[in-house]
Design goal:
By secondary structure, the protein is an alpha+beta fold. The protein is built from 11 helices and 27 strands. The longest helix has 20 residues. Its EC number is 3.4.21.107.
Length: 495
């Protein structure tokens, strides 16, 4: 026993000595969370506000509720009879009803009295009231809104009251795991502080065209909408906007509009009362692995141009359907959804360099951006396609890849309602369970290109598919046009 005890003590001493002599870098150093955010929260509280908005309906609530149909002998019949009789007799208030909405916001300009919140907090409001942490209240006017990013800018007249503004930080510098703090008005409980980390970046929750949310586990609940998400320097790096929650309460998955997007929108709303976004005027779709292989690209990246908008910035075929945009104004386009956001952040009228892949070859083109808001007024159904030419004399119909295709003559145009500007070969039949059906091809669509070469007859369709098979290609890239000329690309297996 003595020898065993001596051995254990000797081994313990050796281990302690060994640990003491190890270099410090060999032991992982884990950064501790903030011991307290009390000072930070105390300094930021005056800048965060609670927002109460109300909407006056023109008709009373009870008058809009019909008498429910109850089964014969229902025990509730007497109660409902009495309620609706009283309503008809005028005992119920039939005057205008008021709907209340609660949210959060923060001061960004103390001199001008500018306050940022979410658009959905004040949407359709007749009255907006801002409540400060010291108990004071001010009426607010709407400066401007942006539904695409769900941002609104309000203005108050502070009078003798001194406002304290916060500034935006750089959301691009935020890393997954960085500490953040939210202050807001959850469930009407003003001045609530929660702390967490950035859980993820670049989240797309399908709420708008420019989704690029920061995800956080800092508790965000109903009423936090429009409130700020701070970094540990007290800078706003996000606007709390949405949560995922089956119960309606926080489960640790909240989303914030990054300051990279919000700052530009707020600046435009403050200057113009509206947004003025850059616009390229192209229709795009994702580059899948199959499309990348069909285009001779090394990997799936970028945004595939499915068409251009007539009257838009693209002129003289600078960018064409089938091009893949991989870089815009010096910024890489890794996914399709990157392009609309980056273009929208660019100034209207700026000339930008765009790197495209056209038929397997990279090239750089220059385009002067238009304004998105003007582009939205154009006919979205129109498309410019310089590769389309007048159709030639029709040939016989043929079947390929599960489709029967025929000539796009006057009879076919009338039968399927195809516009005069659409040129190619019409799909007259799609076999169930075929590769064409699997890719969503429908009768009446028009094949305009195969492997980026135009086709005008069914014979050319068959020949082109046969040629691709001889080249050892596994997939065929088809450009299809809808009845009104809107283009899209699909890949079809040829095995």
């Amino acid at each position: 026993m003595t020898r065993l005890r001596s051995y254990v003590l000797a081994m313990s001493a050796a281990l302690m000595l060994g640990a003491a002599t190890l270099p410090a870098t060999s032991i992982p150093a884990f950064a501790k969370g903030p011991e307290s955010v009390a000072d930070l929260a105390e300094g930021l509280m005056p800048s965060v506000v609670n927002i109460s908005s109300s909407q006056r309906s023109k008709s009373g609530g009870p008058e809009a509720v019909p008498m429910p149909k109850l089964p014969d002998g229902s025990p509730f019949q007497d109660y409902f009879d009495e309620f609706f009789k009283n309503r008809e007799d005028g005992e119920q208030d039939s005057g205008p009803q008021t709907a209340q909405s609660l949210g959060s916001g923060f001061v960004v300009d103390s001199a001008k009295g500018l306050i940022v919140t979410n658009n959905h907090v004040i949407a359709d409001a007749d009255d907006i009231e801002v409540n400060f942490s010291d108990g004071s209240k001010l009426k607010a006017d709407l400066v401007g809104t942006d539904t695409k990013t769900d941002i609104a800018l309000l203005k108050v007249n502070p009078g003798a009251k001194t406002l304290k503004a916060v500034k935006f930080g750089d959301s691009n510098k935020m890393r997954v795991g960085d500490w953040v703090m939210a202050i807001g008005n959850p469930f009407g409980l003003g001045g609530t502080v929660t702390v967490g980390i950035v859980s993820a970046r670049n989240r797309d929750i399908n709420s708008g065209p420019y989704d690029d949310f920061l995800q956080t586990d800092a508790a965000i609940n109903r009423g936090n909408s429009g409130g700020p998400l701070f970094n540990m320097d007290g800078e706003v790096i996000g606007i709390n906007t949405a949560i995922i929650s089956p119960s309606g309460g926080s489960i640790g998955i909240g989303f914030s509009i990054p300051s990279q997007i919000a700052q530009g929108v707020v600046a435009q709303l403050g200057e113009f009362g509206e947004t003025r976004r850059g616009w390229l005027g192209v229709r795009i779709q994702p580059v899948t692995d199959e499309i990348a292989e069909s285009l001779g690209m090394k990997g799936a990246k970028g945004a595939l141009v499915a068409g251009t908008i007539n009257g838009g910035p693209i002129k003289d075929g600078t960018i064409q359907a089938g091009d893949v945009i991989i870089k815009f104004d010096g910024r890489d386009i890794d996914e399709m959804r990157d392009l609309p956001r980056i273009v929208a952040e660019s100034p209207v009228g700026k000339e930008v360099e765009i790197v495209i892949v056209r038929k397997g070859v990279e090239q750089t083109v220059k385009v002067t951006l238009g304004r998105l808001e003007d582009g939205e007024k154009l006919d979205e159904g129109s498309a410019a396609d310089d590769t389309q030419k007048p159709a030639q004399k029709p040939a016989e119909a043929t079947t390929v890849l599960g489709m029967t295709v025929g000539d796009l003559d006057d009879a076919a145009r009338e039968k399927f309602g195809i516009g005069k500007d659409v040129v190619g070969v019409v799909v007259t039949e799609v076999k169930p369970d075929s590769v064409a059906a699997e890719r969503g091809v429908v009768v009446g669509e028009v094949i305009t290109e195969i492997a980026q070469e135009s086709v005008k007859t069914p014979k050319e369709v068959a020949e082109r598919i046969s040629k691709l098979k001889q080249q050892g290609r596994k997939n065929a890239l088809l450009m299809l046009a809808s009845k009104n000329g809107e283009l899209r690309f699909v890949t079809m297996r040829m095995d």
